[in-house]
Amino acid sequence: MPGAELLNGPSEIFHDEEEYYRERTMKSMAAESIIPSGTFSPTADPNFRENASVILQAKIKRVEKVKFGKASVLHIVLKMAGLEFDTFFDDGVLPFAEEGNVISAAFTAVGMMIKEEEK
Q1: How many CA atoms are closer than 13 Å to the CA of 83, on its beta-carbon side?
Q2: Cα gap 25→48, rounded to integer Å
């Protein structure tokens, strides 16, 4: 499956799909959906400031705490329509995140898409 790294923006988290459809604020989005929302130069102007971002609704596949010296972050793997995304959250932002939850968030995309056989 392809994957990419995403850095999180504002987010909502739901216990499962049922709660997502009942409680979400973006009423028209499916529990697994993505909207590219970045800005890119139509003329490949090197002075244009690009912003690779997406609005993503996805299921949490895996959560793990990763240590960086004294600090730690949450590495959360999201599953959406056959894709997997590696996301990183400040430890404490989503302390209750667990497998099976649905997350709705705006993300800045960094890195590149990787096919499963290339991992």
Answers
A1: 19
A2: 33
